[in-house]
Design brief:
Length: 137
């Protein structure tokens, strides 16, 4: 399914031009227009899924295989030193375009890219709460 109001549906369908690195029946991989680093790319499914919760299981598996292939190829091309694969779900998590996508962000020594969080402490109380609840599911 496509969403007429979704820019990534239009880009994935080729209705809006993009810097396309790869395309198959299920996905288009494009360069991000506001890259965190040189070579920052996005994997877009051609069908509209708002986020990971909605994503079809089979497509989810294919997306990860494609991420692996793209990261491997791009590392050789870009000569980067590492990669972050990032995927945001919900406004609170930084999602701004509500069509599932995976960020492939090349990392270079000293690039200054910031994706981090302040590390907390796993307390026994929280650990037990979550372990108990997930066992009940
Ligand atoms: P997120 O914040 O995870 O939803 O990521 C959205 C990403 O899409 C951002 O990194 C934007 O720079 C990128 N973006 C938005 N519009 C376009 C576009 N027309 N072409 C390429 N990348 C885009
Ligand atoms: Zn869409």
């Amino acid at each position: 399914m496509k969403d007429d109001n979704c820019i990534f549906c239009k880009i994935a369908a080729g209705e809006i031009p993009s810097a396309t690195l790869y395309e198959d029946d299920d996905f288009r991989v494009i360069l991000d227009i506001e890259p965190a680093s040189k070579g920052h790319a996005l994997i877009l499914p051609k069908e509209h899924y708002a986020n990971l919760y909605e994503l079809d299981d089979e497509l989810a598996a294919k997306a990860m295989v494609l991420a692996k292939k793209m990261v491997t190829k791009l590392t050789a091309i870009l000569g980067c030193d590492g990669y972050n694969v990032v995927q945001n779900n919900g406004t609170v998590a930084g999602q701004t375009v509500f069509h599932f996508h995976m960020h492939l962000i090349p990392r270079y020594q000293g690039d200054g890219v910031k994706l981090g969080w302040k590390q907390g402490t796993l307390t026994d109380e929280v650990k037990e709460e979550i372990l108990t609840k997930i066992r009940e599911k």
